Amino acid sequence: xxxxxxxxxxxxxxxxxxxxxxxxxxxxxxxxxxxxxxxxxxxxxxxxxxxxxxxxxxxxxxxxxxxxxxxxxxxxxxxxxxxxxxxxx
Length: 89
Ligand SMILES: [Zn+2]
What we know:
mainly alpha; Arc Repressor Mutant, subunit A; 3 helices; 2 strands; binds zinc ion
């Protein structure tokens, strides 16, 4: 949460929400501020995320696909393979 000024928070929230919905990431069931990587390949992750972004926001995309992809990358880089507190994967 210390990198807030590097990227638009709203965009990051959208990206996080979409990654959760396509199940590329999940929230630790015990520690709800910890995001866990669910091991999608990067290409598949982008493809699924972009499809859902299009579906949810249609012709009124709040951010460009390029910006969205950057946000997906940024959010993914902040996830864990397993929860540092409880080991949940
Ligand atoms: Zn945990």
